[in-house]
Specification:
The chain has about 80 residues and is an alpha+beta fold. The chain has one domain. It has helices spanning about 20-30, 55, 60-80, and strands at about 10, 35-40, 45-50. Strands 1-3-2 form a 3-stranded mixed β-sheet. The longest helix has 20 residues, at about 60-80.
Length: about 80
């Protein structure tokens, strides 16, 4: 990964994103109410897609914030 700030590619709400089909496949395969798929390339740039009804998507921001907190903690203890 480079030292430059990573870029995240987002798509317009309601329009398909680069990974929308894959997110839908994961949702169907797992029976999940909603799937948030995050992809990061070797340069640290990312993209995402969310598959699921709006009602289920409403919990995604909170869930991602919780995941970020836990991941930061895990990574910090791994680096020491």
């Amino acid at each position: 990964m480079s030292n430059q700030a990573p870029k995240v590619i987002a798509h317009a709400p309601g329009s398909p994103g680069q990974f929308s089909e894959l997110a839908a496949q994961v949702r169907e395969a797992t029976g999940a109410a909603c799937v948030a798929l995050i992809v990061v390339d070797a340069a640290g740039n990312g993209g995402y897609s969310i598959a699921g009804p709006l009602e289920a998507q409403l919990s995604i921001p909170h869930t991602l914030e919780e995941v970020a907190l836990q991941l930061r903690s895990q990574l910090a203890s791994s680096i020491q």
